Each structure stands twice: as C-alpha cells, then as structure tokens.
Write the structure tokens for this entry.
Amino acid sequence: MMHGPLPDQPETPSAVADNVFVAALERALAFCNYIIVILAAIALVAASAILSYSVLSRALFHSPNYWQDEAAVFLLVGATFMTAAYVQGQRGHIGIEAFVGLLPPLANRIRLWLVDVASLVFCAFFSWKSWTLAHEAWVDGQVTNSMWSAPLAIPYVLMASGMTLLCVQIVLQLLIPFSGASRR
C-alpha cells in the first residue's frame, strides 16, 4: 500500500504558509523535483530507445555493443535515485499500513515521525557513503570495466545527489509539523 496523507487531516496543496523559510524550502524543492521528474522521464525514454537499438543492432546486423548497456544503466540509476525525493514528497514510497486503522491519530503521527527519523538516518548515511564513493571515483579516475570505460563518478554522483535531495525532503517533512501546518 502507498503511504498517503493521514485520513483525519485534509490534504493541502501548500502545507506551510506561516513559516517563510520552510515554505520557501518546500517551493524550491517542489520546483527542483518537477524539473528532475521531466528529465527522468526523458532518461527513461532514452534508456528504452538505447536498449531497443542494442537489441535490433545485434539481431539484424550482428554488431557488437560496447556502450549501450552501461548508458542505459546510468540513465536508469539517475532516474531512480534523482526522483526519490519527488516520490517521498508525494508519500509514494511503499509502506506497510497494517497499523494505521488500529492506532489513534496521535499514535499515527508519532509513528510517521519515527519512520521519517529512521528514514533520514538511513538516507543520510547512504548519501554520505555515495558522496565518498563519488569523490574516490573522481579523484582516482575510476571507470567501468568495459571497452567504453565510462567514468564511475557519473552514477555515484547521481546516487549521491538523489539521496541528498531525499534527505532534504525528509527534513522538510519533519519540519512541517513544527511550523504549525498539518502533516502530509
């Protein structure tokens, strides 16, 4: 099941109106996520076109493919990680909702807060580790083990950037209840 808004609270298009900083952060992140979702959609179409070309060129022309698989994987990694903040902002990540109907609204709010804190800790660690991998790959000039030899810094930077945006989104969701707005 999807993790949606709490049933006892109305969904509002702008959750924060009183706190200027949090509202500005929410608008900036929403705009950034909007651009990323468009680019991710283009990346998914490009990955499918690259893979289709790869299959056709091997089947029809018996030509070797050196770059297609890695290019498609890089595009898919970018689309997956970079859109994580958008999905979290929509509360679209998969969640187990077995207790939502059994718990009172206050307990559900506490449960959501605890889940967000645990998610933030995990995502912050993942982000930090991804940035260290990206730095190592950049400094050492690490490349893939194929003939194409694409730089490994590309997928690591995409992972690190996506996880960093996800951390910002989770922090925003943790700040919203403290700003006096209802939690989404």
